[in-house]
């Protein structure tokens, strides 16, 4: 599928971004309340740090319904742009956070999987680039490198990227997760072979949300794949810790299995030499 360029016209380049969320829309909010996903907010806040976005211009890639776009604004960002390839998701974000009451938030349809789709006016203009569940839709190293290159192109000098993706460190990623804190994760390809290099990069999985809810496919690449693709884009990647809610469940061991096989991994990146 072709993605929109600067003026919304089609590009001759091949898009790699998933459009499976067109049929999900606001139903996607259902996943955000499940126990499996509750550590997301705590982990993101931990990596951003106190005052970590104050006064900053931020970009949220694959913003979906805008939950984290809005979060960045509440944390003090001066302006936040949310991009998503799905018109359905952007419409939902605009309905949830209308410009009339959220003047710092701007949502637009854009495929973020190829660097050439980044508007020229926005290159090198964002203090922070953020993404939750974006990088995990790359099916090859080339696609993942393109996504990192898009990120690098959007950052100001000295800017940083904070992202959330599938768990790249899971030694048991080829095993399914059944009724895992409200999710079912089916392994479609336990040894996922990239169609271009014929190398095993990790797995391909299907995430199922509730009975009769919705489902989507994604990729779970190993940490080394992320690191070398980021490096090709001129970025140095560092992995950060996941953080579970600090409530009564923590002391009872409720999160022990989740911490053994988290549903996501946190990463941070800066340009090579800027750490």
Automatic annotation (TrEMBL):
Boundaries of every Methyltransferase domain copy: 59-159
InterPro entries tied to this protein: Methyltransf_25, SAM-dependent_MTases_sf
Domain of life: Eukaryota
Record-level GO BP terms: methylation
GO molecular function, one term: methyltransferase activity
Coiled coil: none
Name assigned to this protein: Methyltransferase domain-containing protein
Organism, scientific name: Epicoccum nigrum
């Amino acid at each position: 599928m072709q993605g929109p360029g600067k003026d919304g016209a089609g590009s001759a380049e091949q898009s790699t971004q998933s459009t499976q969320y067109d049929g999900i829309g606001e139903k996607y909010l259902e996943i955000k309340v499940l126990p499996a996903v509750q550590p997301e907010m705590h982990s993101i806040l931990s990596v951003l740090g106190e005052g970590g976005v104050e006064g900053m211009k931020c970009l949220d890639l694959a913003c979906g319904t805008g939950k984290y776009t809005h979060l960045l604004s509440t944390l003090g960002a001066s302006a936040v742009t949310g991009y998503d390839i799905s018109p359905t998701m952007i419409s939902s974000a605009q309905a949830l956070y209308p410009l009339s009451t959220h003047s710092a938030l701007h949502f637009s349809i854009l495929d973020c999987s190829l660097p050439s789709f980044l508007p020229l006016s926005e290159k090198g203009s964002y203090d922070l680039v953020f993404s939750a569940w974006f990088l995990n839709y790359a099916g090859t190293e080339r696609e993942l490198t393109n996504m990192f290159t898009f990120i690098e192109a959007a950052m100001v000098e000295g800017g940083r990227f904070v992202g959330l993706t599938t768990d790249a460190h899971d030694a048991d990623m080829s095993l399914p997760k059944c009724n895992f804190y409200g999710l079912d994760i089916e392994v479609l390809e336990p040894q996922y072979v990239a169609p271009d290099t014929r190398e095993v990069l990790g797995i391909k999985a299907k995430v199922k949300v509730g009975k009769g809810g919705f489902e989507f496919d994604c990729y779970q690449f190993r940490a080394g794949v992320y690191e070398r693709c980021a490096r090709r884009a001129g970025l140095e990647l560092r992995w950060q810790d996941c953080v579970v809610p600090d409530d009564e469940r923590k002391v009872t061991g409720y999160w022990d299995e989740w911490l053994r096989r988290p549903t996501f991994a946190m990463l941070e990146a800066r340009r090579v030499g800027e750490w």
